[in-house]
Write a structure and sequence with these properties.
Blueprint: E1 8-9, H1 13-21, E2 24-29, H2 35-46, E3 50-58, E4 62-66, E5 72-76, E6 80-87, H3 97-132
Length: about 130
């Protein structure tokens, strides 16, 4: 049953920072699930060791929608249950792999640009030296 639990990863800067700093990943989970079921589902789906699970229920905000004629009707966003799952040191999930790849690619491009500017400055210095002679 645990493999059939729908775990939706939360893709935010705060969740990414927590995954890098404390090896903690954040998931949206169904409201009827408990900590043990979340831990078993993460372990079964991703083949990792779960150390700790914390669960938070975010209450939905009150909202208003305006209909034709300017009449406002009250409404509410639905509640959301989040699970903070901390993994054993050395384990990781491929949730933010695309973000990490993009960061690495950007660093490589920046290094290549720095090398190119260094070459240009050296070449310009050689040309200036030849002109002085």
């Amino acid at each position: 049953m645990d493999k059939h639990v729908v775990l939706i990863p939360r893709m935010s800067e705060k969740a990414y920072g927590a995954s890098q700093a404390t090896n903690t990943y954040v998931f949206d989970v169904p409201k009827e699930i408990n900590k043990h079921s979340v831990a078993n589902a993460v372990a079964a789906q991703f083949n990792v060791t779960v150390e700790e699970v914390n669960i938070v229920i975010l209450k939905g905000k009150a909202k208003r929608t305006v209909r034709k004629g300017g009449r406002a009707t009250p409404g509410r966003q639905s509640d959301v249950k989040k699970a903070y799952v901390r993994l054993k040191a050395g384990d990781s999930l491929p949730i933010f792999a695309a973000v990490e790849e993009a960061n690495e690619k950007q660093e490589r491009v920046q290094e290549l640009a720095e090398k190119a500017t260094e070459k240009r400055t050296k070449a310009a210095a050689k040309v200036a030296k030849k002109e002085k002679k």
